[in-house]
Design a protein that fits this description.
This protein is an alpha+beta fold and about 150 residues long. The protein contains two helices and ten strands, in the order ααββββββββββ. About 25% of the residues are buried. The protein has one domain (about 30-150). It has helices at about 1-15, 30-35, and strands at about 40-45, 45, 55-60, 65-70, 80-85, 95-100, 100-105, 115, 140-145, 145-150. The chain starts with a helix and ends with a strand. The strands form two sheets. It has a six-stranded mixed sheet with strand order 1-6-5-3-4-2, with no helix packed on it. Helices cover about 15% and strands about 25% of the residues.
């Protein structure tokens, strides 16, 4: 009965993308099982460093395996590709949302302020990018606790 239920749940996941996969099986998932046509944003890479809740992330190859790390605008090697839905420890698999989604972080955002650039998640309403840094639009604050993240 348990296996039948798990197979049914897996079918809903594969074809509907209706909810988050069980964290116990994240390490067993391939990208094609998480980046579905119905919800192409959810992905479960390994963190190559500690990443905080809601932080923008950069995807990179670590010995041929896709990993994520903190995005950083201080040079051109770590542009943002998405954000994390919960803090992730170094070497642990975690959920990232690629491209767009709703970031919830208590008291972190100003309504109507554009996240026009980032240097380790600095929120700016106007551009002040130094030479050699990245300027990348990441979204719009829709409340003090929410940011609509969109690359």
């Amino acid at each position: 009965m348990y296996n039948a239920f798990q197979q049914l749940l897996s079918a809903f996941q594969n074809y509907g993308g209706i909810s988050q996969w069980d964290p116990e099986i994240w390490s067993q998932l391939s990208p094609d099982q998480t980046l579905f046509p119905q919800f192409p944003n959810r992905f479960y890479p390994i963190a190559s460093e500690a990443i905080g809740l809601g932080a923008p992330i950069n995807l990179h190859s670590n010995a041929g395996v896709i990993n994520c790390r903190n995005a950083n605008a201080t040079d051109t090697t770590k542009p943002a590709h998405g954000y994390v839905t919960a803090a992730i420890a170094n070497g642990v698999r975690g959920e990232v949302i690629l491209g767009h989604g709703l970031v919830i972080a208590t008291g972190a955002f100003a309504i109507d302020k554009l996240l026009a650039e980032y240097c380790e998640w600095t929120i700016c309403s106007s551009s002040s990018v130094a030479a050699g840094n990245i300027e990348q639009f990441l979204g719009v604050g829709i409340s003090a606790n929410a940011l609509f993240f969109q690359l």
